[in-house]
Write a structure and sequence with these properties.
InterPro entries: MeTrfase_RsmB-F_NOP2_cat, MeTrfase_RsmB-F_NOP2_dom, NusB-like_sf, NusB_RsmB_TIM44, RCMT, rRNA_ssu_MeTfrase_B, RsmB-like_ferredoxin, RsmB/NOL1/NOP2-like_CS. One of its GO terms (cellular component) is cytoplasm. This protein is an alpha/beta fold. The chain contains 19 helices and 13 strands. The N and C termini lie far apart (64 Å). The structure holds S-adenosylmethionine (SAM). S-adenosylmethionine binds next to helix 13 and strand 6.
Length: 446
Amino acid sequence: MAQKTVREAVLNILVRVGQSGGYSHLLIQREIRKDNLNQKDVALLTELVYGTLQRRDTLAYFLKPFVRKRVKPWVKWLLYLAIYQMQYLERVPDHAIIYEAVELAKKKGGKGLSSFVNGVLRNVQRKGVPSIDSIENPVKRLAVETSHPEWLVERFVRWYGFDIARSMCFRNLHEKEVSVRVQSMKTSREEMIKKLEEDGFEVERSPLSAQGIIIKNGNIFRHPLFKEYLTVQDESSMLVGEMMDVEPGMFVLDACSAPGGKTTHIAEKMNDEGCIHAYDLHEKKTKLVEEKAKDLGLTIVEAKQADSRKLHEIYDNGTFDRILLDAPCSGLGVLRGKPDIKYQKSVDDIQNLAKVQGDLLAAVAPLLKPDGKLIYSTCTVDKEENELLIQAFLENHKDFVIDPHFKASLPEVCKELEGLTEWGLQLFPQDLDTDGFFLTRLIKKV
Ligand SMILES: C[S@@+](CC[C@H](N)C(=O)[O-])C[C@H]1O[C@@H](n2cnc3c(N)ncnc32)[C@H](O)[C@@H]1O
């Protein structure tokens, strides 16, 4: 695919995400499959979509003085795309960026629009974009500089103070390395590392899981051992499997399991002996859990559909040795991979999710055996979905406490983190370069 067409595909994705709320990662995958793009084009497409989306509000601030009238959404996104490249990418000269944007405008909107786009971009090039430093209010400045909605930055600052909020917002702009989990029953991490290095990959050992490998360089998705030996998983998610403290033969409930990353990790940890009942609200998604277990050669996973708020209709109290509640959440910890989330979520969404999370926790907790362990986790950094929710649960469930061994069982690198409190561990993306993630472990008193 010629570069010009890649940019056209980028523009189509941006307009769909920006105007109709499509998910960028799904649209990118569809585009890659549809046009059978080569590796270079995939890299360019991904960089331009994520880069422009990540910086949307900053780009709007940069563009504002140059466009006084309302423009069509696709023209606005075309201008954002061009200014993104002019401001943040060094390898393409401005004149080439402007030329391509003008050609695209001509193709999509005719001559009138192409001269408009040309005029705006030439002006931006000549006059330069407005300074962000002139914004006096520090929260507003951080919001514009890092392209997060102001309400969200305010919330981060309220929860964690300005410095942590600032580091998090900046880190959210940068891509994360891919990490994979080795199927430990098939091979060891060391053997896998040897194999990957022989095949030209640059890798590192994860400090958060003995099964985790960070891919520093190389396309792991195309490796022949990928499907049967490896699972792409953020290191913070691997920490859940590590902290479940399972043993072979246990009876485990995974209440929100799809697509099955953590379920399969737990099964590996149990040496595929025992039983895991893995639920998800959506029938279609339970198939993903089944497929993942099958790919990895795991047999103890039974994937089923249910609303886990109603599992008391199926199970008696005190049934499970271990429970995982990896709850549906706002996803504010994964903005690096899914920038659309920061523009789409609202305070109402967070509060509605917190209600569902609280209901799920209250519903599954009684199913735990006395002395059993329950992990609650989310990929968000919002206190209402994490720490405050756990506090409220413990107020109302005096038969549960935070596991007194939780802190001591964490990997060493977690023990000094600012997000480690008496309620659990809040990992920030800037801490260990993982997703923003929360986890805690409760035990049921005997
Ligand atoms: C954070 S994801 C789980 C990710 C999964 N644990 C993994 O590691 O691959 C949350 C899941 O909860 C499911 N879910 C949402 N509400 C639910 C409910 N009431 N009962 C069961 N599952 C639910 C969603 O469909 C989603 O797949």
